[in-house]
Amino acid sequence: MGGGEPMKLIILDRDGVLNEMVVDSEHGTIDSPLHLSQVKIIPGVPGALRKLTDAGYLLAIASNQPSAAKGKTTRDNLDAVHSEVLRLAQSEGGKIESSHLCFHRSEDLCACRKPLPGLLLEAMQRTGALPSQTWMVGDGVTDVRAGQAAHVRTAFLGPNKCDICKIFEQNSLAPDLRCPSLVAFAEEISLLF
Ligand SMILES: [Mg+2]
Ligand SMILES: [Zn+2]
Question: CA 191 to CA 69: how far, in whole Å?
Fold first, then answer.
């Protein structure tokens, strides 16, 4: 590193951004993958990460993973899921520098669970990126809130007409950027700078 150029960092939420959520139509629930066999990368993500890496962005993941603490799966399963997401996401040459995961439940009152900024601050500290050079990209309100709490720019991934967007409007929480997918974000950001 060095060369005087400030580090540019993109912190990515994981589930719903890099990998698909798991829909259980029988129970009408949607959840993170709890087992290796449930990992499915979102089409276009490996190429988008490659594009961002080539453009000089450092990439990190910040993700809440409370399922083991809730007794829904094991930490070993969560570790295997995360390794598989990393493997698939980086398969076209994109490079994820670091992963920052919170394994707590909300009732554990930790300092890392999004919407608190702990994981994001950790990622910035690790890479030496300044908040002004950092993006938080996620598909949840908590991602946008965590980004705003860490004073970084925020991108919300979701459809233009969405229920979550109403929450943003009601709470004047508008993200800096709104895109339908990580692929669209990678394209948009290459035009911004
Ligand atoms: Mg998500
Ligand atoms: Zn935590």
Answer: 41
Largest CA distance in the chain: 55
Pairing of strands 22-24, 153-157: unpaired
pLDDT in tens, 85-112: 999 999 999 999 999 999 999 999 999 9
Distance CA 17, CA 41 (A): 9
Report the distance separating Cα 71 and Cα 84, nearest Å.
21
What spacing in Å lies between the alpha carbon of 115 and ligand 2's midpoint? 10
User: Is 15 annotated as catalytic?
Assistant: yes
**Hunting for tokens 């399922």 — which residue is that?**
67
Which bound ligand lies closest to the C-alpha atom of 102? 2
CA 15 to ligand 1 centroid distance, Å: 4
| d(C-alpha 103, C-alpha 157), whole Å | 23
- Per-residue confidence (pLDDT) for residue 24, from 0 to 100: 86
Residue with tokens 């499915």: 40
- Identify the helix (H) or strand (E) that includes residue 125: helix 118-127
